[in-house]
Request: fold
Amino acid sequence: MPAPAPDRPVITVGCDLSPRSVTAVRWAADEAHRSGAMLQLVTVWHAGIASHDVLPPAAKRTELTREALADVSEGLNATVVGLEGRAGPLLVEQARDSAMLVVGSAGHVGALGAMSGSVSRYCLRHAASPVAVVGPGTQPGSVERVLVSGTLDPEGSSFPWAVQQARRNRAELHLLDSWYVEPVVPTYPELDRQVRQQAHEHHAIMFALLARLAGGTVHVTEALVSGHARDVLQARTQGPDLLVLPYAALHHISFVQGRCPVVVLPPTPVRAERKAGVAAAGKAATPATTSGQLAAATAGGKPLPATSAGKAVPAATSGAAPATTSSSTGAASGLV
Reply:
């Protein structure tokens, strides 16, 4: 491909001409429009997988890919690259210097980030850039809400990237946390109370950190919900959302039939200043109210114990317990 302009970011998207990859191409094109990035569409074929009676010849596949791109690339600086070999490694290599790699998914993501398809799984584990996984239910259009999870990202490593996305899209920035205690017999009310309290304290610290990073440039909201993290995220994400997770979160979440695109950031060491920011947010905190409506910060927060991260206290009635919500801009809090 032609060398991209040094002052223009590049979004790379994989396309195998399947409906799910076309959805990914449309989402990537929208993201390129919003960010002013170049778009690089990569199509890969492997002669050993099927004969030319099943897969079109290389030149024909590249032509079909260009046609698929033509519908969404108006006003974009876009290129098409056709390669032969293993899709996962080639996509990762092509996206090495990209701002983002976008791949399609059938919508199933299991434990350890295992998705339906080895290509998406490989890209998630090996890409040096953020990887956006776009499910079949994703609708083209603007991102209305960027979600992060302090439960799955206790250091807040994904928060700066999410803040940038929210600013670019003029979207709401939402912190969605949860807690869970595995039901046991006999019950331990004191353990239940401690986990709830620690969840409230940690959630408020994360909210304070997120609001500080946003600096008043975006509308920041939050919710703390009783439920397993995977169930909470599945139930509370919507089509116009963008969920941002750190690489480490793949070891805690099983995302099934994702209702919005999910961006997984590559593994990076947590910088000392970021840890200092979490500590500062904790010092600035004030205790959560007994009603569960959280202030922008709490004092003496403790990290969630490993046994409670992503797990929920069983609700007294069927379904998840109501969540408390608040906003850094002072909007009224209430039940959701």
